[in-house]
Amino acid sequence: MIKKAEFVKSAVSINDLPNDLYPHILLLGRSNVGKSSLINALTNRKSLARVSATPGKTITLNLYLLNDEIYLVDAPGYGYARRSKIQSESFLKMIKEYIKKNGHLKKIVQLIDFNVGPTADDLNLYRELQTLDIELVIVATKYDKVKSSFKIKQEKEVRSKFLPGQNIILTSSATKFGINTIIRQVIISE
């Protein structure tokens, strides 16, 4: 259970990270996949992470300290068309530097939209993340947006896009479905 959660800082480079030994869990996902809503659901806070009606608002790595022992790191969303090519490239460079040079990174959580299914951008990132020696968990958000009669079919479709045995957790920030699974399997297990 997450008893304490606080926003610590925003970072634009590896040099901006806190100088401590806490492990990091990185959240990656397309703009509008629900990263901020997921952070708020995990921490049981309504506005710890700012939820925007406009996708693509996060432009820094935002660090949240959970239970005074682990950082949840929210990265800028990818695949947002209104960002300039230069902005997108600088975000990609920042995230790659963070992944390669941060010795405290223990897990990467890639968020995909369960309702939409993994996009080409999601699958390209997934293939790239497979080359890293870091545990990868897929979290499918917006489970509540799919009609009950289609959930089993959609889950099979989503799972078919990833490697066999890939840990995929289905979630809904609105109904809290799957939230405790993420806390147990991703955050507390660290």
With strands numbered from the N-terminus, the spatial order across the biggest sheet is 1-3-4-2-5-6-7
Name the beta content range. Answer: 15-25%
The Cα radius of gyration reads 16 Å
What's the CATH architecture name? Answer: 3-Layer(aba) Sandwich
Helix-strand sequence = EEHEEHEHEHEH
CATH fold call: Rossmann fold
Q: Can you describe this structure?
A:
It is a single chain. This protein is of the alpha/beta class and 190 residues long. The protein has one domain (5-188): Rossmann fold (3-Layer(aba) Sandwich), CATH 3.40.50. The protein has five helices and seven strands; from the N terminus they run ββαββαβαβαβα. It is globular. The chain starts with a strand and ends with a helix. The relative contact order is 0.18.
Short précis:
The chain is α/β, with parallel strands linked by helices and 190 residues long.
Lay out the secondary structure:
Blueprint: E1 5-11, E2 24-29, H1 35-43, E3 61-66, E4 70-74, H2 85-101, E5 105-113, H3 120-129, E6 135-141, H4 148-160, E7 168-170, H5 179-188
